[in-house]
Amino acid sequence: MSSERILIAAGRVVDPASGLDAVQPVCVADGKIVGVGHHPPGFAPDREIHVPGRIVCPGFIDLCARLREPGQEHKGTLASEGTAAGASGITTLCIPPDTKPVVDTPAVVRLIRERGQKAAQIRMLPIGALTSGLNGKDLSEMSALKQAGCLAVSNGYTPLASSLVLRRAFEYAASHDLLVIVRPEDQELRDCGCVHEGAVATRLGLPGIPEAAETLAVAQCLVLIEHTGVRAHFGQLSTARAAAMISEAQRRGLPVSADVAIHQLHLTDLDVDGFESLCHVSPPLRTAADRDGLRKALGDGSITAICSDHQPHDPDAKLDVFSATDPGIASVETLLPLTLRLVDEGVLSLSEAVARLTVGPANILGLPTGRLTVGSPADLCIFEPGATWQINGSNWRSRGRNTPFWGDEMVGRVTQTIVGGQLVFQA
Amino acid sequence: MATERSTSLQLDSSGNLRHFLCIEGLSRDLLVRIMDTAESFTSVTEQTVKKVPLLRGKTVVNLFFETSTRTRTTFELAAKRLSADVLNINIATSATVKGESLLDTIRNLEAMQIDMFVVRHADSGAAHFIARQVAPHISVINAGDGRHAHPTQAMLDMFTIRRIKGDFAPLKVAIVGDILHSRVARSEIHALKTLGVNEIRAVGPKTLLPACPEALGVQTFTDLDEGLAGVDVIVTLRLQKERMSSAFIPSEHEYFARFGLTEARVAKAKPDVTVMHPGPINRGVEIDSRVADGPHSVILRQVHYGIAIRMAIMALAMRTGSDFTARKESRP
Questions:
Q1: ipTM of the complex
Q2: Which of A60, B58, B284, B330 is the most buried if burial means most Cβ atoms within 10 Å?
Q3: What is the CATH number of the domain that holds A404?
Q4: Helices B321-330 & B299-317 angle (0-180, nearest 10)
Q5: Cβ–Cβ gap A200/B128 under 8 Å
Q6: Quick check: is A309 catalytic?
Q7: Which of B124, B132, B178, B182 to probe by mutation at the A interface, max A CB count within 10 Å?
Q8: Shortest alpha-carbon distance between residue B123 and chain A (Å)
Q9: In this predicted model, what pLDDT tens digit does every residue of B42-96 receive, in sequence order?
């Protein structure tokens, strides 16, 4: 926490939590927000950041980013990926438990938090493993993980052995008031699939993953969520139908939320055509109707968060026959510009777009950040909404260059990131 | 979009064949040129000295990551009859087993001054991947990639159909069996469509039909008799044994009862129907011996034409085939 007093002046302050959208000053002191729209009595800033024409908003909270450390440092490190995230306006990163070693002991939780914060100066929240070693059978020591700072548990990509284990895991997590993050996919229906089972899979002869692999898993979880009363979050939806099922469950009052990875809102299975391994992602890119359904669910508030689903890779991981390549896109640096593209395309208002990156994910996790309330931690992002930049080797920070957007022009550039009252990035 | 990507990968800037990876994206004219060139080679394969010097000094590598007898043999014969040096590499028993990546295997062979790769691989997209990675002077011929494409098989089948039926436009063609897993079926469907066939039927149980048959432009039938009614050509596909163990079909016996090509079934088609099979055949599973060896069957002619069609494709991809046709035509 920094004791520096900062005045952010002349920026357009967008705080979806309070509905604020106006040119106002924001005052920061002792790591907290101490004034929005006015200077607290006697406030004498040590530093003034004058940002006319720029947007001042809460720092972004990314619900899913794999940084590859510990275990796969040749793909990325807490420092390389954390720095890339910080320079992209992200102030809190949630890290799935499938590191090596797995996040199933307090020691690994502390290692990632401490090493990560030191290396990249942003907040890192490891998600605890739902089962020990992600083996799908034995429950992890969730209470210990919670004490070490885990706000949620998940089994990531790894399936659970049975619906009985799923039920018990939900019950046990509910006993400790832990959020369970589910990435819904029925592994048996997935089989050896690597793309959406549809027209492109049929033409390319690639084994498909049916929509039902996602909807069946969502249906099964919804039944057990209702049965056990656990708080649950569905991560990285890919189908319109799953989004509709979750929306319906929310209307019935179930404690469920959902996020979507940014690439699912822009790309479809057509982008895989020609065996484009940079568009090999999991869950797979689906149809234009799915993309539009996810956009609609994002607009009507059934999906309250957009995540990066950042997965940096070494070049070799994408240099093979399509099905043998590793899925995933390096995406923290495109999170803001691709979200702003949704505003440009009329899917979301600017305030809604900022909400899906800030207060939306904050509420899912129960974090005090993601809003510009006096007294809340001073995690802020300042960006130039109209600034254009081209993705290339000179400005890309992530160690992974695996993005289908490589070489494209992006609109929207972060100029400052503040975490806990400290300026951690300045363009 | 894939069509554009496949086109740009397969053709050079003047529209000549560079790699032969899939039928999708190739023009009708090019398919006809391949068949015309093959026509000129059929006489070569019937001479006592069965060689032409078109690929003299060139090195062709048969790179087979999946076992095959017929396809590899016909490619080898085709290359030898074009006077190329041929190297057969069976990767199932080679470096990739020791952990070498596909790309490293390719780079190593490239370093040995290879001119052409003929690739067979168990994964869809393998030939496309290799074509994108190789040095510009190397041609890649797809000898079958996963479930995606087997374009030389499709072309030899088109060649067979043309020799027997003449015109493609009025034909009704039924493809019977495991369409879902069949690279032959995909390539044949694209070739038939490109050559002007309007009615292409895919016949099989729903477990063996693709999720989106409309993406291929075929009508599907789950009843064999309906599917065969009035057709001019029947292509029967091989049923892999492993389909039984993974819940696609219950048994060979039931499959033969419902989808096996018998004389009674063939009688539902036109009287002059042509029966084809890409081989190797499972007698008594997808086809009755009396049909396989009967008067409508052209299965062995398919194998015979396989050599000429592969010679044509290799020659065109090395940009020498058109010279050969031209030279023949200019002969007095």
A1: 0.90
A2: A60
A3: 2.30.40.10
A4: 100
A5: no
A6: yes
A7: B124
A8: 7
A9: 877 677 777 899 999 999 999 999 888 888 999 999 999 999 999 999 887 555 5
